[in-house]
Specification:
By secondary structure, this protein is of the alpha/beta class. It contains 13 helices and six strands. The chain has a six-stranded parallel β-sheet, sandwiched between helices.
Length: 321
């Protein structure tokens, strides 16, 4: 006989499952997709209406609704978006009048310029760091730093605008792969936000700190104006910027509100492979705490960006037919 007491379960009261408020029902389960019968938007509808799959569907609807109501859709992005081959997706969304503004860190601008001018980008950092050659690529530094220095003295253009115009002027061999150039062609602002010392062009003799800082500051003011228009159902999509853009966005939002713009009731989404503190707090949570909605969706950019773009385009196409 055991020495320990045990509760008598015969006195336990049970309740009918019919009286329970259940979180999941068969109506929420995934539906079977038949490519012979169904469109891509029907595939989207076939996803379970549960957790992140439901969030994904809602994000697509938010973007479609924003553009139907002529509200901004801002893409913020880190360099990895370009490194995994998704420039073409962002460019297409610009051309389709779905994305109305792009804000990138300056590493993304480097990859964009290298891709447009020479058709290649990204290096083996670990290997090149060993002999001090990491980032010391003559053409990259001289092109970007040269354009910034010239623009600093000769025009009021910002960082992204200056690079986009120069790529077009030089008829870059791979111009069709440049987000910077696409922004110029579509009259869509593409802003570049630099943190001095973070990028390979900052360590080269051609670096001009005054030019880099001033042109990036001009782009910050442009982004502040873009953010001021987010009120009531605009959308901000952050792809893979874990530090720079979440911080810049928070300050741009503060400036917009401080200067008399309401800027409430918008939607923010953080897409990344890992959910980090700053995007979660500065993009998803804090900006939407007084109205609006924030989402966090985790996945690899090379899968998630084409997927969400295809879903948005398909829903817009089918709604417009």
């Amino acid at each position: 006989m055991t020495r320990f007491k045990r509760i008598d379960l015969s006195n336990v009261r049970t309740i009918s499952i019919r009286e329970r408020k259940s979180k999941i029902g068969v109506r929420d389960f995934a539906q079977l997709y038949d490519p012979a019968k169904h469109s891509f938007s029907q595939f989207l509808d076939s996803l379970p209406s549960i957790l992140i799959a439901n969030d994904f569907k809602n994000v697509v609807r938010h973007v479609v609704g924003a553009r139907k109501n002529n509200k901004p859709v801002i893409v913020m992005m880190g360099a990895h978006v370009i490194k995994v081959g998704c420039s073409t997706i962002i460019i297409d969304l610009i051309k389709q009048n779905i994305v109305t503004a792009v804000a990138m860190n300056s590493a993304a601008a480097i990859h964009d310029v290298e891709t447009a001018m020479w058709g290649v980008t990204s290096e083996d950092v670990a290997e090149n760091l060993m002999d001090g050659s990491f980032g010391m690529w003559t053409e990259t530094g001289e092109f970007i730093n040269g354009v910034l220095a010239k623009t600093f003295h000769e025009s009021d253009n910002g960082y992204g605008e200056a690079l986009g115009e120069e790529l077009i002027a030089k008829n870059a061999p791979n111009l069709e792969h440049s987000i910077l150039a696409a922004g110029i062609s579509a009259n869509v602002p593409v802003t570049v936000h630099a943190a001095i010392g973070t990028d390979i062009i900052h360590q080269q003799p051609s670096m001009n700190g005054a030019a880099t800082g001033e042109l990036s500051f001009r782009d910050f003011r442009t982004l502040c104006d873009v953010v001021s228009e987010l009120t009531d159902d605009g959308v901000v999509l952050n792809f893979g910027s874990a530090v720079i853009l979440p911080e810049v966005f928070l300050k741009a939002l503060t400036v917009a509100r401080n200067t008399g713009h309401k800027v409430k009731g918008f939607v923010t989404v953080n897409f990344d492979m890992i959910q980090h503190y700053r995007p979660r707090v500065n993009v998803v949570q804090r900006p939407t705490q007084d109205g609006g909605k924030g989402y966090s969706i985790t996945g690899h950019h090379e899968i998630m960006i084409p997927l969400v773009a295809a879903a948005i385009k398909d829903v817009m196409y089918n709604d417009g037919r």
